[in-house]
Amino acid sequence: MTNEREGLRVAVFGATSAIAQAALRLWAARGAELFLVARDRERLDRIAADLALRGARRVEAFVADLDDSSVLGRVLEAMDAALGVPDVALVAFGTLGDQTRAARDPEAARRTLTTNFVSPAVLLTALAARFEKAGAGCLAAITSVAGDRGRASNYVYGAAKGGLQTFLEGLRHRFAGTGVRVLDIRPGPVDTPMTAHMPKSGLPWASAERVAADILRAVERGRSVLYTPWFWRWIMLVLRHLPQPLFHRLRL
Ligand SMILES: NC(=O)c1ccc[n+]([C@@H]2O[C@H](COP(=O)([O-])OP(=O)(O)OC[C@H]3O[C@@H](n4cnc5c(N)ncnc54)[C@H](OP(=O)(O)O)[C@@H]3O)[C@@H](O)[C@H]2O)c1
C-alpha cells in the first residue's frame, strides 16, 4: 500500500482527537504526507505545525464541522488537491454524548446518532467512491467496543457505533477481492478528553498512544477488525454471547 517513492499519504477526519493525534505523530515520524480535517482552527494549526516539526513530509489542514454535509464536497476537493486519493483515510471524530439525556431527549439522541453514525457513514461513502476508482488504499474508522452489544449505560452511542461497524462490514464485502482494505477500529476505554469526566477505576484504561500504535500496525497488516488493546476481542466475545437473562442482571 505504501508508495515508497512518494511516502505514505494519510487523510485524518477529526484530527484534533487525542487518538488521531497520537496516530498522526507516528505517521509524521515516518515522513508521511498528511491531510487533516477538524473544526477548531487554532488547535488544528497547532497540531499541523507540530507534525511538520516531527518529520511529516507535508501537512495540509482544512477546517470543517463534519456534521455539516454541505461542506463535504469542499473538504474532499481539498483532500484531492493535497494528496489525491490517500493511502489511508482515518475517520476518527465522534462524541460520547450524555446517555442519561439521550435516552429521554430525542434531540440529544439525534445529535449522538448523527455524529457517530450518519456523518461518518456519509463521509465514508464519498471516500469509498475515490478509493474504488484508485483500486487501492485503506479506509479506516474508529468505532468502539460499545457497538458490540447494546447496554443500558450507553446504547445510543453504542447503536451509532454498531451501525458504523455494520457499514464498514458492508464496505469490506463490497471491496473484497480488490486492493481496497476496510479497517474497523474498536477501542475499549481510552484515557482521552472524551472520557475525562469518567472515573479511571474498574476498567482497564488504555492510552491514546497504545491505541495509535495498534492502529498503525493493523493498517500495515491489512487487518479488518482491530480490538485495541487486544484483550477486548475476548471480553466482548464473552459479553456478546451472555444469555439475555444473565446479561440483564449485570449493571453495565
Ligand atoms: N476515548 C475512548 O474511550 C474511546 C473508546 C472507543 C472509541 N472511541 C472513539 O475514538 C474516536 C476518537 O475519540 P477520542 O477518544 O480521541 O476523543 P477526543 O479527543 O474527544 O476526540 C473526539 C474528536 O471528535 C471531534 N469531533 C466531534 N464532532 C465533530 C464534528 N462534528 N466535526 C469535526 N470534528 C468533530 C472533536 O473535535 P472538538 O475537539 O472540536 O470537539 C474531537 O477532536 C471517537 O470516534 C470515539 O468515539 C473513543
Describe this structure in words.
With 252 residues, this protein is of the alpha/beta class. Helix content is 48%, strand content 16%. The model is unreliable at 1-5 (pLDDT under 50). It has helices spanning 18-29, 41-53, 72-83, 99-102, 106-134, 155-174, 208-221, 232-241, 244-249, and strands at 9-13, 33-38, 58-63, 88-91, 136-142, 179-187, 225-228. The protein has one domain (9-249): NAD(P)-binding Rossmann-like Domain (Rossmann fold). The chain has nine helices and seven strands, in the order βαβαβαβααβαβαβαα. The N and C termini lie far apart (40 Å). Helix 1 links the parallel strand 1 and strand 2. NADP nicotinamide-adenine-dinucleotide phosphate (NAP) is lined by residues 14, 16-19, 38-40, 65-67, 92-95, 115, 142, 144, 187, 189-190, 192-195. NADP nicotinamide-adenine-dinucleotide phosphate binds next to helix 1.
